[in-house]
Amino acid sequence: MDTFPIWSDKFSIDEPNIDLQHQTLFDLANKAAKLLNRHIYKIEIKELLTEFFDYMKIHFKDEEDYMSSINYPYLLEHKAMHKKIIKEMSVLLNECNTTNDLKERLYEIVSIWLLEHIVEHDMMINIWKKSNLKIEEKKNIVEEKIFDYVCGCENFTHKVDYGIHIKIKYLNALYKCKKCFKELVYAAQDNNEELK
Q1: How far apart are CA 68 and CA 128, in angstroms?
Q2: For an engineered disulfide with 126, which of 13, 59, 102, 134 has Cβ 3.0 to 4.6 Å away?
Q3: What confidence tens digit (pLDDT) does each residue in 6-62 have?
Q4: Residue 146 pairs with which residues in a beta bridge?
Q5: b/e burial code for range 134-170 (CB count within 10 A of at least 16 → b)
């Protein structure tokens, strides 16, 4: 397993407390990567997961307070994402029986949930904050970010705005193609490529 990217200013949301917390989460992610590249005892993984779990709960609360203070329009959706991450962490801590299960799930949570969440969703907070427009115009800027989804139609990609992307990927909303009636599926590129 490769190490995860290290913190850089390109991940900043220009809020010092949140940026410092994100830096700590990046450090914990790299600590996890190093731990998972060697023989490891189950107790070591559980200790790291507990450290992540405790820190993420504090961070998510602070981030939600910050989003509320700037009237971020996707606060409820963002809270739902946070809740889903915490729920998965809780299940992981309580239900994984083998060291390999723990390793696999820890990698999944760190790479997909945590780092993807910071890069893909927390960066949208900064786009919102930096815009000097009225609230509705700001919302349009955030929604201009387009995500590709596929269905059963051959050689066709649905272009989905940020709001619908969140609903499908994180809130379990079901959207179907009007032509083939198949469920839309996120056609994400390798998340680690976006982080480099």
Answers
A1: 12
A2: 13
A3: 788 888 888 999 999 999 888 888 887 777 777 877 787 778 878 888 888 899 999
A4: 161
A5: eeeebbeebbeeebebbbeeeeeebebebebbbbbbb
